[in-house]
Specification:
By secondary structure, the protein is α+β, with helices and mostly antiparallel strands. It is built from 13 helices and 7 strands. Helix content is 58%, strand content 14%.
Length: 347
């Protein structure tokens, strides 16, 4: 059956679905975020190195062309994938991967921020089994959409996208370069170990490889958090797209996942760089709702015991489980609008 599989047709179909998703959901981003994501997508499509310059005129022409193309596909339905013998629904990852994996490809589909459908096909780099969880690591990406999360989890399957992760790490390195207070940030402390004039390509490779493990740990935590919070959690998330409640709900689960798995695994490695990298990512709603964790990190930096971070994580496991259950209770009562009341710091 695999001999008859037309991988070119499959890639074209997945990319077409990516265009439809982008056309429908691109308007949810702020203009700044939209342009950053579009530049990243353009760089990927044109195979421009991360350190390469983007010609403004060419990018502007491409941007106009892409938005015109979106106008023509926004109302289209997502197409099934043309597998041998039958077309398969684009969300049936198990069936699609049963035919793509033996050929060295991996496919995923799911929902990201704002409930935006995400699709991609990548070159399978490795796969492993972690208890009940299947992990796939891909390298080169052959089809992708505007939102390219470095990691995602669905149906106890974790997908780590090395190429997207590398782009995300490079964005952090660029942000560090632009910052005026580089030594006094988690990223600044992380970069300090590479010396005053580091080889950024080597740094990028090393940090990306290290971050792969952190992402796997976080997604394993997501699996455990999902088991504790129950299936209705996803229903609640889907009911609150494009809202502040969505960011709060995602932060609750992220913090629970990190307290369950990510932080204990990082602490067990006794590698300061992993902690600095974790806190370089610890921002936004997650950080706002969990100031105790930042305070424990600050205590450690000032010469305190690393056990303070461990203690906060241990306490956080029960706390975020309780807050997750409280959010679910509000959702079941049709009162999710009161979610912010659970967090006085949001007043």
């Amino acid at each position: 059956m695999n001999a008859k599989l037309n991988i070119g047709s499959i890639l074209d179909t997945v990319q077409a679905n990516c265009h439809i998703s982008d056309a429908r959901y691109a308007g949810n981003y702020t203009m700044c975020i939209f342009l950053l994501k579009m530049r990243d997508l353009y760089r990927w499509e044109q195979d421009i190195p991360l350190t390469g310059e983007i010609a403004k005129a060419d990018f502007g022409d491409w941007l106009v062309s892409r938005e015109n193309m979106w106008d023509g596909c926004e109302q289209q339905d997502f197409a099934p994938l043309p597998l041998p013998g039958e077309d398969v629904d684009c969300y049936d990852m198990a069936e699609i991967n049963s035919q793509l994996l033996p050929l060295g490809y991996v496919y995923s589909s799911g929902y990201g921020l704002f409930s935006k459908p995400n699709f991609y096909v990548g070159k399978l780099l490795r796969q492993e089994r972690c208890g009940p969880v299947q992990v796939y690591l891909s390298s080169c990406e052959y089809a992708r959409d505007l939102e390219a999360p470095p990691a995602m989890m669905r149906d106890n399957t974790i997908f780590i996208r090395h190429e997207s992760l590398r782009r995300a790490v490079w964005a952090q390195i660029e942000e560090w370069q632009w910052s005026k207070s580089r030594p006094d940030t988690p990223m600044g402390r992380l970069m300090a170990r590479f010396g005053p004039n580091p080889d950024l390509e080597r740094v990028l490779d090393q940090l990306t490889d290290e971050q792969v493990e952190i992402l796997i740990w976080h997604e394993m935590g997501e699996v455990m958090a999902g088991e504790q919070l129950g299936e209705q959690w996803e229903d609640m998330l889907q009911a609150c797209p494009r809202s502040k409640a969505e960011f709060i709900i995602r932060a609750i689960r992220d913090n629970l996942a990190d307290c369950l798995v990510t932080l204990p695994r990082i602490l067990a490695e006794h590698e300061p760089g992993l902690l600095h990298y974790y806190f370089a990512h610890f921002r936004g709603m997650r950080k706002l709702l969990f100031p105790e964790l930042s305070e424990a990190y600050g205590q450690w930096l000032r010469g305190g015991r690393i056990g303070a971070i461990k203690a906060v994580a241990e306490q956080g496991t029960e706390r975020w489980q309780s807050l997750g259950n409280a959010a679910l209770d509000l959702f079941r009562r049709g009162d999710i609008s009161r979610l912010e009341a659970l967090f006085p710091q949001l007043d």
